[in-house]
Amino acid sequence: MVSNLIADDFPNGPQVKFNDENPPHHPTHSPQLASVTHSPILASSLAIIAVTNPPSATRKLGVITMGLLSIIRKIKRKEKEMRILMVGLDNSGKTTIVLKINGEDTSVISPTLGFNIKTITYHKYTLNIWDVGGQKTIRSYWRNYFEQTDGLVWVVDSSDLRRLDDCRYELHNLLKEERLSGASLLIFANKQDIQGALSPDEIAKVLNLEAMDNSRHWRIVGCSAYTGDGLLEGFDWLVQDVASRIYMLD
Ligand SMILES: Nc1nc2c(ncn2[C@@H]2O[C@H](COP(=O)(O)OP(=O)(O)OP(=O)(O)O)[C@@H](O)[C@H]2O)c(=O)[nH]1
Ligand SMILES: [Mg+2]
Fold first, then answer.
1. Which ligand 1 atom minimizes the distance to the CA of 190?
2. Which of 15, 135, 195, 240 is the catalytic position?
3. SS3 category, 132
4. 193 is in an annotated binding site
5. Is 112 annotated as a binding residue?
6. Which of 18, 90, 102, 242 is the most buried (most CB within 10 A)?
7. Is 135 a catalytic residue?
8. pLDDT tens string 133-146
9. Nearest to 92 by CA among 140, 137, 136, 154
10. Which of 46, 106, 35, 96 is nearest to 71 (CA)?
11. Which residues contact 165 (CB under 8 A, 6 or more apart)?
């Protein structure tokens, strides 16, 4: 089961590919949650409630769901976990950014055909980073990773002027998604080391970021996954912003 994967089991980073035997699924937040949500006892209890008592089944299911949500919140608070989803067009530099921030070799990178999960400790937080492939044919799978996302990272290849329209379209499409409405949004204007790359301000204009919903917490940061410039500035902002919402009682 993919939800049992943790980065420590895969020193080179797990790369999970989609195929008929391994279709995209709804990943859970952590291994602990996987055991909560995949509990056979819970599943059979839900089935029994639904079959034996249809009129009140909905109410009882609601109560159980609320209970589960509170367990999830407690686990999250205890571990100071955050779920970060990295998306963007293919070749924008998502995988390179994750490797670089984790201090890994970035010299040999291939396109991500499914997703990678990386668990890293960042200051006092544990970040579960989901790096999902951005090729056009697999973008429809992004939606399988929206659930419980705390921070969204949209990566732009600032030197790929030809595909900026495509990039704007995909970003605004993503932001319509209800399940991502509470997520803080970091936009990385990546590949600033390449001559001719647009600046973060120019990227913000082309992507029409000012048109974003007022309630959205967002920031654009110029970076280079190649040199590492800007990566910490971006992640520092994201982690602080998410922490101020999730862990505000600490
Ligand atoms: N010059 C330069 N090249 C970069 C930078 N970031 C990534 N690259 C290169 O861009 C190419 C694509 O990088 P990836 O990290 O595989 O891109 P990706 O967004 O993960 O692509 P998919 O997995 O296909 O969605 C690789 O050849 C990287 O070496 C950067 O900041 N500067
Ligand atoms: Mg990749």
1. 31
2. 135
3. strand
4. yes
5. yes
6. 242
7. yes
8. 999 999 999 999 99
9. 154
10. 35
11. none
